[in-house]
Each structure stands twice: as structure tokens, then as C-alpha cells.
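TODO from last week: model Olfactory receptor.
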Amino acid sequence: MASTSNVTEFIFNGLFQDPEVQRACFVVFLPVYLATVVGNGLIVLTVSVSKSLRSPMYFFLGYLSLVEISYSSIIVPKFLTDLLAKIKTISLQGCLAQIFFFHFFGVTEILLLTVMAYDRYVAICRPLYYTTVMSRPVCHLLVAGSWLGGIIHSMVQILVAVQLPFCGPNVIDHYFCDLHPLFKIACTDTFVEGAIILVNSGLFSVFSFLFLVSSYVVILFNLRKHSAEGRRKALSTCASHITVVVLFFGPAIFLYMRPSSSFTEDKLVAVFYTVITPMLNPIIYTLRNAEVKIAVRRLCGKTEHAGME
């Protein structure tokens, strides 16, 4: 922690200032968060117990849903509590922890999406080698690599954050801790730090997005060689992946590849990828994947039957 800091606590401006609007937001966002936890939790449970979902694609989907729960839970519970509070405070240590875990789970999700794109590439473009290339040990290594990549990224973020001196004021124009809002209240020039974050977050997001889009272009091009039924099934799966990629990367690139501002629009965009997108992912994957829908119905049927006995 920077020795020149004399601030031990921050105050969030929040999303809106009007108490009535804040209470309305609480009523809207609480069910969204609960749906996020239940929906993603149901996918994790279904993938864990269903014998029909043993392929690498569902192995990665289970971990993606687990990351979604964690990613959302870093921000949303505190956000919901603050919507009902007159003064929205967070300690300096809590702020740093929020930055670390928010970026840790965010980048882990990016890397898992990349791994899932690679899995689809091998399955569609190199089907004869699929079982060898995507063996269970390889899948575990790819997941472990995603977690490791998230840690490395977050360490850079937190090393930048702990060097920032705060002399006051201590009001953050946001509803959670991130580096751009902190730069505004740091009592030092943050040009170098901003450049580091641009590379570590902004350019990383852009290049990851371009890589993913390129991967799916190659996949879709290779689908010409498959049967009509194979194309239909592959297109359905890839459409789900592409939708999730666009929903996740679009807002993130918008925020991290442009100069920070105090516009409410920035905070509304942040709401989309911290609150809304994690809820949409299980819906997208379930609605467009017949195998997942069948497995979920079987699981719910077994649970209901067990409850009646």
C-alpha cells in the first residue's frame, strides 16, 4: 500500500442519486442476481451429474458458469446493499480486493471463452484428432491455464492500484472499485498507470475478441464440409458462443479503450456486463442447446421426484 496515502475508506457516488430510483433498481437487480446464481449454478450441477454431458465442451461450460457466479458476486451483493444505504462506503483494503477478484474472474472468463473456441475448432475442423487433442488431462491443463492467466492479469492491476497515493477527496464516481475511477481521485499524475491498464485490460480485450471472432470465422468456413444435420448442430452451438462473446466483450472494450469520464452512460454500460450479462449466459446456452435442455429437465425431474418420496 502506498505510504503517502492518508485515505482508509472510500465513498461511492453510486449509480443514481435519487433514493426512489435506487430502491427501484434494488427491486429490479435483486431478482437478476438471484437468477444469475441459480441459472449458472444449475448448469454447474447439471454438467457435474449428467452422464450425457461428458464432452470437453460441457466440461468448459461448467467452469464458465462457475466463474460467472464468482464474477457477479464480487460486485453485485455490495452494489445491492449500497442501493439501500444512505452512505455507500468501502475500505481501502476492500476496494483493492474488489479490483483484484473482479479482474481475476473477468480475465479467467475471457480465457475460458478462448479455450471453448479452440475446442469447437478442433471438433469441427480436426474431428479425427479431437479425442486425442482434447483429452481429459489437456482439458484440465487448459482450465488451469485460464485460472493462472487471470491471476497474472490481476497481479498487474493490483500492483498499479497499491502504488496510487490518495490524499482526499475519497469519493469514487462509480458503484464499485476499478482503476479508472481511482485514477481520478489519486493525488498524482496517472498517465503511466493509465497506459499500463490500457495495454493490460483494453488491448488484451480487443486482441482476445479479434482472436475469438477469427476463430469462429474459420470454424464457420469449415462447416461447408459437414452434412446438413452436422452444420445445424454446430451452428447452434457456435451461435451461443458468439452471442456470449459479443455480450461480454462489447461493453468491456467500450469502457477500457476510451478515455475515462464521469458520464452516467459509463456506469450503465458497467451494469450491463457486471449484472445483466452473467444472467444471460445460462439462458443463451440452455435455449440453444438441446442436450443441455434435456439434461436440465432430467435433473429437475429427478429432484422433483426425490422431493415427493
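Done. The beta strands are 9-12, 88-91, 171-172.
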